[in-house]
């Protein structure tokens, strides 16, 4: 639609707008984005978020470097030739495509966090799930390659993109440009790739979000005038805010139960939710990975189960042991996917707290001890693989974001390994001893913390926890 036809509507439950700027390379996104950001920041706190994969920028940055530059350029040319001829994609193309998609997922999660803190958001690009390929769609679904693992990771990627696409912007400003103009502005870009992006861009609907089309071949002053008019229409729907939500008191309350397996975290946290739901809105949040339970379910499979569980446990033990070598790229990818699942669970918990719920969580992530007790999974073992090291860097960013949102109270249920093993006989005793030893060392980013002797009976521990919550004025 044209700017004159655009009649925005506020999104239910949203305090500040989300405005997406999309277009082919050479359409002027950066120039227009800079002008719109200045307009937005003049009246309210605004975050500018780049939601692209930036694979092309990475290639062009590395190309001038000695030694590595010619190698990267050669690989890029081979990949471009493969795409044009429709040949089968290599393993490196699939792995790098998935990693870059996860980078986009991470950036999107950071964008959501900033928006939930009360900031307006302006994005350069926006993920979509309708057209796989270079125009900010899923990567693996666009590759000419088959295999069980690729299908699994492709399903994971599509699910993540579907989730991102459901969070619709208030408006999408689409900058349309023809191939000739795009090539004049970006002479270092590949012609057939730009043509593909221009074709795909016209097909996108961004899950029904309002789309304002602007002819980016017009003079810059006209393009800016149309874009700024669109933004002002959206801003009129949302009141100005001198402060983000982060500066305001929490609407709800977050209580986290932590402890070794067998300390009673799950039973007591679920019991607390049931108890307090009678008097106030209360929800339960699980912030573990669930990898141990998954391994035990695999072990219960007939014939291959026990052997497969033993092999997976061996790889997991190496991955979480400091000084050991990370057992392969696939292990690293799986651990990173588990961390993304944890991030998704955390965001759900955070939203509930900010909506005024009392949230009781089973576990809470920490950054003090990697590999154990809900710490980062990729930072304990070492790896010389640059992809794993890059994923570990991304993962640490995820955990920094999580631990910055401190619980109002952490209740640590202390139990010795033998008692825990008596309650969880299917768990490894050595692993329980390590967890029981490490758990008292954690401070959870210096959140308020109290200790409970979980060796007592279930009823006694539950009553102790209830008394603590009353004493701290949380219920």
Automatic annotation (TrEMBL):
Keyword annotations: ATP-binding, Hydrolase, Nucleotide-binding
One of the GO biological process terms: dTTP biosynthetic process
Cellular component GO terms, alphabetical: cytosol
GO-annotated molecular function: ATP binding; dTMP kinase activity; hydrolase activity
Keyword Nucleotide-binding on entry: yes
Annotated protein name in UniProt: Conserved protein YghT, with nucleoside triphosphate hydrolase domain
